[in-house]
């Protein structure tokens, strides 16, 4: 499992700036995800080959007793409880404050690995800047600049070195795919799990938010083994009030990360919402195989069915690689085709791609449509090989590949997906440019 790193500190110490740098985006992946306060964001971070979940919390005041500050503090408390490690951020420009001391006192009681990060230290003497923060009793302060990236890589290497690297599940074929059931509250996720396994293993009734934790349910159907992961529903911001329920979204994100295949459950009786798109976007970002189950199909008329299909085409075009199934979890309709789609998506995600065929397809694609020139040079793609599975990763070698535009990457992805008939899984393309030994002599 990818470690969960939580950024904690008083307001305006640079938590969001570090978050954006770690997730490599200026717009948080799920900034408007359900159950989040205005300053709560989370996403996937990557340093070199290591990935992790990173959580940006609101300004933390552990002694607040009322008002919005108290509500924000409760959310930070839940984030601390869920964290694998805490990054306590302070401001080098403002120095040590009583507010920092209050937070440090709370974090010392948390029992989580805590790293003291002195931000905004660019252009300053690190030894001098960090000296006063030793008084917080949280170990050696680490000076960085989240805005400029100074020392951020070294910080993350230190944070991540105590967590084991993710390893491929060698027993996946024997145990079958791990299937996460995700979606908004009350769309029928738990009912779907109960229908699949044929018994009431998961509580299911018409009260949104029944499920709080991700629940794993191993089962066998038609001689095939699966592990289902029923997750808490992801809600629209402002509709959830209990702190533990608000932060159950982290459980869902972790369930997606642990899954081989994700089943995104939509409600045919409701409009496709921004939250549905956010969940689908996170699944794509995580690189997981996907099946979309439009539930409660039996409860809507033909007009509504046509409307929901048009809604899907308009709002979820980026999920075009996935198979859409129209089901009734309550009546068991469409369940067999859905499981076949899960099997197909899993097979596509774990498929092995032969290097000679990949290279032929790459050369055919470039002959059909060449990559655009950049600064007078056209990228040259020579050969390709597989670099990983779940999702399939194709590594393309050549020269001048650093400036291949995103539109051409999508063209290559479509070409490979269609050629290998990989329905149900996203695909990643990585470029590796060869070094020019004469570059320094020009």
TrEMBL record:
A biological-process GO annotation: ribosome biogenesis
GO molecular function, one term: GTP binding
Protein family according to the UniProt entry: Belongs to the TRAFAC class TrmE-Era-EngA-EngB-Septin-like GTPase superfamily. EngA (Der) GTPase family.
EngA-type G domain: residues covered: 3-167, 177-350
Stored SUPFAM superfamilies: P-loop containing nucleoside triphosphate hydrolases (SSF52540)
Gene designation per UniProt: der
HAMAP family named in the record: GTPase_Der (MF_00195)
Function: GTPase that plays an essential role in the late steps of ribosome biogenesis.
Short name of one Pfam family: MMR_HSR1
Name this protein carries in UniProt: GTPase Der
Subunit structure: Associates with the 50S ribosomal subunit.
Keyword annotations from UniProtKB, A to Z: GTP-binding, Nucleotide-binding, Repeat, Ribosome biogenesis
Residues engaged in binding GTP 2: 183-190, 230-234, 295-298
Binding residue positions for GTP 1: 9-16, 56-60, 119-122
């Amino acid at each position: 499992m990818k470690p969960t790193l939580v950024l904690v500190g008083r307001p305006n110490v640079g938590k969001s700036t570090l978050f954006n740098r770690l997730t490599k985006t200026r717009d948080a992946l799920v900034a408007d995800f359900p159950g989040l306060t205005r300053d709560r964001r989370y996403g996937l971070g990557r340093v070199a080959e290591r990935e992790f979940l990173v959580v940006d919390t609101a300004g933390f005041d552990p002694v607040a007793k009322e008002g919005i500050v108290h509500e924000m503090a409760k959310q930070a408390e839940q984030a601390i409880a869920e964290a694998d490690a805490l990054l306590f951020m302070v401001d080098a420009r403002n120095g040590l404050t009583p507010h920092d001391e209050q937070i440090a006192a709370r974090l010392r009681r948390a029992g989580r690995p805590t790293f003291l990060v002195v931000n905004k230290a660019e252009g300053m003497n690190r030894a001098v800047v960090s000296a006063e923060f030793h008084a917080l009793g949280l170990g050696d302060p680490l000076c960085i600049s989240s805005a400029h990236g100074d020392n951020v890589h070294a910080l993350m290497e230190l944070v991540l070195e105590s967590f084991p690297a993710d390893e491929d599940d060698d027993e996946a074929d024997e145990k079958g795919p791990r299937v996460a059931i995700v979606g908004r509250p009350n769309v029928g996720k738990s009912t779907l799990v109960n229908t699949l396994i044929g018994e009431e293993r998961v509580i299911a009734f018409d009260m949104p938010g029944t499920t709080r934790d991700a629940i794993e349910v191993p089962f066998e159907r038609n001689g095939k083994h699966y592990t289902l992961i029923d997750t808490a529903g992801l809600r629209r911001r402002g509709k959830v009030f209990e702190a533990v329920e608000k932060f159950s979204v982290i459980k869902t994100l972790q369930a997606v990360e642990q899954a081989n295949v994700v089943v995104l459950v939509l409600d045919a009786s409701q409009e496709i919402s921004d939250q549905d798109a956010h969940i689908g976007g996170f699944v794509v970002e995580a690189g997981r195989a996907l099946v979309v189950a439009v539930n409660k199909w039996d409860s809507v008329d033909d007009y509504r069915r046509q409307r929901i299909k048009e809604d899907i085409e308009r709002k979820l075009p980026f999920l075009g690689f996935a198979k859409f199934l129209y089901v009734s979890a309550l009546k068991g309709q469409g369940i067999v085709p859905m499981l076949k789609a899960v099997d197909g998506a899993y097979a596509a995600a774990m498929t092995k791609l032969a290097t000679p065929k990949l290279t032929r397809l790459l050369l055919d694609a470039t002959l059909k449509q060449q990559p655009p020139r950049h600064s007078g040079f056209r990228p040259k793609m020579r050969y390709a090989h597989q670099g990983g599975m779940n999702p399939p990763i194709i590594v393309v070698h050549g020269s001048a590949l650093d400036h291949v535009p995103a539109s051409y990457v999508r063209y290559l992805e479509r070409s490979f997906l269609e050629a290998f008939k990989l329905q149900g899984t996203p695909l990643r393309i990585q470029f590796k440019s060869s070094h020019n030994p004469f570059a320094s002599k020009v």
